[in-house]
Each structure stands twice: as structure tokens, then as C-alpha cells.
Amino acid sequence: MSAEVCRETAEHPRLLKLSSALFYAGSSFLITVVNKTVLTSFRFPSYLFLGIGQMITTIVVLYLAKKSNTVKFPDFDRSVVLKMFPLPLLYVGNHVTGLASTKKLSLPMFTVLRKFTILMTMILEAYLLRKTFSRRIICSVVTIVFGAMVAASSDLAFDVEAYTFILLNDAFTAATGVYTKKKLGDQSLGKYGVLFYNALIIVLPTLLASAFTGDLHKALSFEDWSDVAFISCFLLSCFMGFVLMYSIVLCSYYNSALTTTVVGALKNVAVAYIGIFVGGDYMFSWINFLGLSICMSGGLVYSYLTFNSSQPPGNKAEGTQEQKILIPEDLSRKD
Fold first, then answer.
1. Please, which residues have CB within 8 angstroms of residue 95's CB and are 6 or more apart in sequence?
2. What phi and psi values does residue 66 have, to the nearest 5 degrees?
3. Alpha helix segments (H runs only) across the chain
4. Could you read off the pLDDT of 174-184 as tens digits, one per residue?
5. What long-range pairs does 222-231 form, CB within 8 A, spacing at least 24?
6. Tell me, what DSSP letter sits at residue 76?
7. Which residue has the higher pLDDT, 128 or 84?
8. Is-contact 159 247, C-beta < 8 A?
9. What is the three-class DSSP state of 330?
10. 334 pLDDT band (50/70/90 cuts)?
């Protein structure tokens, strides 16, 4: 499976790879700012309800597109659930922990700690797909993680709960990326089928969980539902949730899970520095700023090495010595 995925990735034109990556970077940047505005500036009490709105928007948009023959994907049957598993569960974890950490962390610290997703994705691809990585790429990842640790060490707004959410979000994001790439190899579902059924399968359980925990009541009782500015930001967040998920699927389809993660890191270069001035909850310190700079420098080098490699990311890079991570054969993924 891994060799097949790498071969398919290599066959896509460079323009499609780059344009899908830029689309994902822009979408990720915009939704981070919009979500931060809804959850922090307007103090909306339910990140879970916001996630439900994004799921419903995805379902409605793709359903209408299917009915108008704009996109095509198979009709629902029982086999779809088995084909999608465990992606919906990973998506729920990724979505909930992502929104929770967005609410609880300042934008710069959110983007810094998200760098651990790169390391987790690399480890997961090595473990499941038995991929290998060049020494230069490994060194750039170490630089990214080191910078993240330096920046986080001086976080004057340290919050154990917030840090737990963001690290869980890193793990869910890495797993979601790898499994999304795997599911995209199923031609019977296609890009739009994966996106539509992923949202359809999880929206009802998420809604029930929201109602059971009282989260739904808090969201519906929010006092600013009559505020046009809040409603506009909320609806924009819902729509951007769909755009983000589509951009992730598109980027994963034309690239690899690791490349998609790298693009997210590169996007964070802009988000982190802009977040120093936007959001109002960043507490400046020179150590934190130094860590940010180290982290972002590593991200830029990593992105340069990834997009300038003549072979798929995660395999041999030109003129570099390969570093292998050995996994026992009986523990590796069997396709």
C-alpha cells in the first residue's frame, strides 16, 4: 500500500501539488483566525457546537453538489461505514481537541505546539507505512521540535488542560492525515465520498454528546445570537470548516500526509507572528520569541527540502543519506 501511494503521489503534476498545498495553507490560516474570533473575542461557550455547525455545512454543501451533478460519490450503504473506519473517530478527536485548544491557547502558542504534529506524523508513517527519511529532513524536524520546546518553556500563560488538548490534537491530526491518505486510495469512495461520509457518520453522535453534556444548552443560550457580527463570524466559521476539510483531502490526495503536515507548519509561520498582534492574549517574552523563530526557521527548511525533493516526501532525498527506522515485520501494517 505504501509503495502504491508513493507512486500515485509522484505521478501528480507539480502544479497540482503546489496549488493544493497553497489552498490548504490559506484555508487553515483563515479558519484559525475566524475560530479564534468566535471562541475568544465573542466568548462563544461551545467549541463542540461550532464543530457540529461545520460538519452540517459540509454535509449540506456536498449533498446539494451531488444532486446538481457537480460532484459524484457513491450512495450510502452499510459497507461505507466499514470502508471509512477508523477515520470518523479520528476526525472527531481532531476536531474537538483542535477547537478546544484554539479557545484555550494564544495563537502563537497554539501554532508552536502544533509543530509536534510533524514529528508524530513522521513516526506514524515510519511505523505504519515503513517509510524512511533523509538526515536533513530529520534534522529540520528536530529543529522545529527544539524551537517549540524553547517557546513553550517561557509561556507565561501555561495551562495544563490547554497543553493536554493541543498535544492530543497533534496525535489525532497525525493519525487523521495518514488514514485520510489511505482512504483516498479507495477509488469507490473518491475525494468527495470520503469527505461527505466522514461528516455524515459523526455528526449525529457528536450532536448527542453535546446535548448529553449540556454543551448544546449553553450554545443555544448564548446571548449574542442576535448580534449580526457574531452570526456572520459563526456562519463564516461553519463554511470555512467545510473549505478546510476539502483542502486537507485535496492536499493529501495530490501529496502525502507528511507534506500536508509540513504545509500546515509553513502556514503557522504567518499565524504565529500575526498572533503576536491579533487576539489580545499573547504575553510577549524574548525567550518565547526566540523559540518561535527557531521553530519557524526549521519549518521553512523542512518545507524547502520537502517540496524540492524529486521523490515523494518520506523516501530518499537527492544526494542525502537515508535514515531508517526499523519496525518489526509482524507489527507493520499489512495491505
1. 51, 54, 55
2. -65, -45
3. 2-11, 14-36, 47-67, 78-84, 87-104, 107-113, 116-128, 135-153, 160-184, 190-212, 215-220, 228-254, 257-275, 286-307
4. 888 888 777 77
5. 222/44, 222/45, 222/46, 224/42, 224/44, 227/42, 230/38, 230/42, 230/44
6. P
7. 84
8. no
9. helix
10. very low
List own/partner pairs for 244-248 with CB under 8 A and 24 or more apart: 244/24, 244/27, 244/28, 244/31, 245/54, 245/58, 245/195, 245/198, 245/199, 246/27, 246/195, 247/20, 247/23, 247/24, 247/26, 247/27, 247/28, 248/24, 248/177, 248/180
Map grid coordinates 449540506 to a residue. Answer: 60
Nearest in space to 91 (alpha carbons), one of 270, 249, 212, 318: 249
Would you state the cell numbers that stand for residue 299, as one nine-digit string?
Answer: 519549518
Query: What does DSSP say about strands 133-134 and 322-323: parallel, antiparallel, or unpaired?
Result: antiparallel
Left, alpha or beta for 319 (phi > 0: left; psi -120 to 50: alpha)?
left
What distances in angstroms separate CA 310 from CA 134, 209, 307, one per listed residue? 13, 46, 8
Most confident by average pLDDT, 1-5, 67-71, 131-135, 315-319: 67-71
Distance between CA atoms of residues 251 and 158, nearest Å: 33
Q: What angle do CA 16, 268, 284 make, to 5 degrees?
A: 165
User: Mind giving me the DSSP string for 23-69?
Assistant: HHHHHHHHHHHHHHIIIIIS--S-HHHHHHHHHHHHHHHHHHHHHTT
- Cβ proximity of 287 and 154 under 8 Å: yes
Give, to the nearest 10 degrees, the angle between helix 228-254 and helix 47-67: 60
Tell me the torsion sign for CA atoms 30, 176, 174, 125: negative
pLDDT (tens digit per residue) in 280-291: 555 667 777 787
64-102 confidence digits (pLDDT tens): 999 998 888 888 887 888 888 888 888 778 877 876 776
Cα separation, 114 vs 94, whole angstroms: 12
Question: Nearest Cα to 51, choosing from 38, 64, 61?
Answer: 38
